[in-house]
Amino acid sequence: MSMDPLGRLLLVEDENVLRGLVHQFLTLENYDVEPVADGQAAVDAYACGGPYDVILLDLNLPVLPGVEACRQIKLMNPRQPFLVCSAAVLESHIEALHTLGVFDTLGKPYHPSELLTRIRMIMARVQAGAAITDSVRRGWRPDGRAHATLRPSALSEARMLE
After folding, report:
1. Of 12, 108, 140, 150, which one has the greatest count of Cβ atoms within 10 A?
2. In terms of C-beta density within 10 A (0-12 exposed, 13-18 middle, 19 or more buried), how is residue 104 classed?
3. Integer Cα distance of 1 and 124 in angstroms
4. Options 3.90.830.10, 3.20.20.70, 3.30.870.10, 3.40.50.2300; which CATH number does 8-152 get?
5. Which residues contact 2 (CB under 8 A, 6 or more apart)?
6. What is the pTM of this model?
7. CA-based nearest residue to 35, from 60, 16, 51, 53
């Protein structure tokens, strides 16, 4: 029996090993994850497959910097939620991101459980906002499907990590 994914995520990370690990972890947590390696690939993926429940965005990216990728995606959909996951968030980044309506950041290195918590919080906030503004639809997804209920994390269930 297969469960519907808890949500769709776009993972924008240029470091191959980290991208692979995060992709694998979130897939095990029952998220549908599309990994890309640079800012332009993120914009292209969004144009073809967006919106996503959350975009996980590094800032120091090749081809197109993270803030510019965010700006281009926000032009397509100003309501698209982002979680900026970066080791180097400068004051100029914060100002630019706040101007775009992006306030959620997670510094690297981060623990996988913290990443999962932040994704869940963002998705819950989006759902709550959608419920207030539109009582007919259950969530902001264009297909009208409600998000699945939260379940315990596979990370918390893994005995070998205790």
Report:
1. 12
2. middle
3. 26
4. 3.40.50.2300
5. none
6. 0.80
7. 16
Tokens of 151: 């379940």
Rounded to the nearest angstrom, the gap between the alpha carbon of residue 14 and the centroid of all alpha carbons in its chain is 15
What is the C-alpha to C-alpha distance for residues 65 and 25, in angstroms, rounded to an integer? Answer: 25
Q: Which amino acid is at 145?
A: R
| Unique residue bearing structure tokens 């596979």 | 154
Distance CA(90)–CA(67), nearest Å, equals: 11
Nearest to 130 by CA among 118, 120, 142: 142
Task: Quick: pLDDT tens for 12-70.
Answer: 999 999 999 999 999 999 999 999 999 999 999 999 999 999 999 999 999 999 999 99
141 three-class SS? coil
